[in-house]
Every structure is written in structure tokens, then in C-alpha cells.
Design a protein that fits this description.
The complex is a heterodimer of chains A (198) and B (82). Chain A is built from 5 helices and 7 strands. By secondary structure, chain A is α+β, with helices and mostly antiparallel strands. In chain B, strands 1-2 form a two-stranded antiparallel ribbon. The chains are: A alpha+beta (198), B mainly alpha (82).
């Protein structure tokens, strides 16, 4: 299954960008996971440094092992949920529209679409030391006042993406104008006159 | 003196395992259904399954010598008899 199966592509529609948050953003959940994974080792070093750790009391031993196993399986599945949330947030920009797929936790998902002709303004922002060094930031696509803006959070090369979306929007507007002109009664009349040699 | 066999501890652990399996499957199904099935998704799924198996293996090894059915005194409190 490719990215094309995530939405129905129109005829002649070409995917320009598939945007996800910058991979560096996922270092934070990795760091949190490593810290949480280290806690039982610290606990063992602090509380059982000079005590025998084993089968002296089977009930306590079984309790401790089951508790530690529960803890590790819990943080492991939590880590996978964090990855799923990161990985399934996708913004797709085509030469016709913008599709914003947003994973909300494990059981929530929203998909929003915006035709490029309705793009009013595009704003990009890089804020902070690490985003500046690594070149990732936010792109905000502004639409008509009564519609919700599209936010692409923590994506790589936001300035280039902004520029490209503006170019694509301009091209899409031109294409739509040509299509309207081609099908309008005046344009049809002009074509008919041309065909008759008038 | 109150005593219980250690296998009593397996009941809450079993309940947790059910929740763990449910959330694992939900995650993997979401990744397969809504994410592009590429190397990243497959690698993460494989790593998750391998990690879970590793945790399970170490837990199994640590719990192997426990006499699960032998009653173990829970609180060393003598109940007075009259």
C-alpha cells in the first residue's frame, strides 16, 4: 500500500509533498522512554544495593517480577502509541489540493481537505534554537475567514513549502480560470466564430 | 497466619496482559490501515513484537523457579484462638 491509497486521487492530480513532522521531534518520546526504562535499574541500585535479590521470599519475588514486567510492557505499548501518533499525522500537498490527516490518539482521526484555489495566504515560522539549526517549523495555510486554517506543525523546510504552496495555488487558479473561460458561453461563441472563419 | 499461593498474583497480571494485547493490536492495525505500508512501519512493528517477546522471555525466566501453588504467608500475624 502506497501513500496514494490514503486518498482518492483526481484525474491528472500529482502529489507534490508528503509531509510529516521532522524526525528529530520523535527524539523526545525516545528520551522519555529511555528515562522510564532506566527507573527500575535505579530503584534496584538504590533499594537493593546491599540486600539479596532473589527467591528468598517467593511471593515478593513473583510480585516484583510481575510488577516490573507490567511496567515495561506498559511503557513499551505507550511508546508504540507515541510512534503511531507521530507516523499517522500526514499532510499531503498535490497540484490541486491540500489534505491534512491528523491522528488524534489511538482511536481518533480527522481528515480535512482544501482546494488550492481557496488558499488566501501562506505563513511559515521557525521558532527556537533547535528548529533554526535543523530547519523545521510551522506552515499556516490561511483560507477564507469563516474556514479553519491548516497548520503543518514541525515540518522540514517550512519556507520552501510555503513558497511552493503559493506557486501551486497560483497555477491552480490559472488552470481553473482557463477551464472556466473554455466552457463559458462567450468563449464558446468565440470558438464557433473562429471555426466559421469569421 | 494468612497465607496465599503466588499464583493469585497472576490474575491481575492476566487482566493487564489482555489490555496490553488489545492496545498492541489497535496500534498495529492503525499503522497497517492508515499508514503507508513501507519499511518504517514494518520495522517498527517488528521491533515492537521483538521487544515484547524479549520482555516476556526475561519475565518467564525470572518466574520459572517459583513454586506457584505452595502457600506463602502473606502477613506474619498470629490470629488468636479462644
Amino acid at each position: 500500500m502506497s501513500i496514494k491509497s490514503l486518498f482518492t486521487q483526481h484525474t491528472g492530480e500529482k502529489i507534490e509533498f508528503v509531509l510529516r513532522r521532522h524526525p528529530i521531534v520523535f527524539l523526545r518520546p525516545i528520551f522519555v522512554f529511555l528515562v522510564l526504562a532506566g527507573i527500575p535499574f535505579v530503584g534496584k541500585a538504590v533499594f537493593y544495593a546491599d540486600k539479596p535479590f532473589g527467591l528468598s521470599d517467593p511471593l515478593s519475588w513473583a510480585g516484583i517480577v510481575l510488577l516490573v514486567t507490567t511496567y515495561y510492557l506498559g511503557i513499551w505499548v505507550f511508546f508504540l502509541s507515541q510512534f503511531t501518533d507521530y507516523y499517522l499525522d500526514i499532510n499531503i500537498v498535490t497540484n490541486d489540493r491540500i489534505i491534512d490527516i491528523n491522528q488524534k490518539g489511538l482511536f481518533g482521526r480527522s481528515v480535512a481537505e482544501l482546494d488550492l484555489t481557496r488558499v488566501q495566504d501562506v505563513h511559515s515560522e521557525i521558532k527556537g534554537i533547535i528548529p533554526t539549526l535543523l530547519g523545521y517549523g510551522t506552515v499556516i495555510v490561511q483560507t477564507a475567514a469563516n474556514e479553519e486554517n491548516f497548520h503543518f506543525e514541525q515540518i522540514p523546510n517550512p519556507n520552501y513549502i510555503r513558497q511552493r504552496i503559493l506557486e501551486l495555488a497560483a497555477l491552480d487558479r490559472k488552470r481553473e480560470a482557463r477551464e472556466i473561460m473554455g466552457t463559458s458561453p462567450e468563449a464558446a461563441g468565440h470558438r464557433e466564430m473562429k471555426e466559421q472563419g469569421l | 497466619m494468612i497465607s496465599i499461593p503466588p499464583y493469585f498474583l497472576l490474575f491481575p497480571f492476566g487482566a493487564f496482559l489482555l489490555a496490553f494485547v488489545f492496545f498492541s493490536i489497535a496500534n498495529i492495525v492503525s499503522l497497517a490501515k492508515y499508514g503507508a505500508r513501507n519499511a518504517t512501519g514494518l520495522l517498527v512493528t517488528f521491533m515492537f513484537v521483538a521487544g515484547s517477546a524479549l520482555i516476556g522471555f526475561y519475565a518467564w525466566k525470572a518466574l520459572e523457579p517459583i513454586p506457584w501453588t505452595a502457600p506463602v504467608p502473606l502477613f506474619r500475624i498470629e490470629i488468636p484462638t479462644f
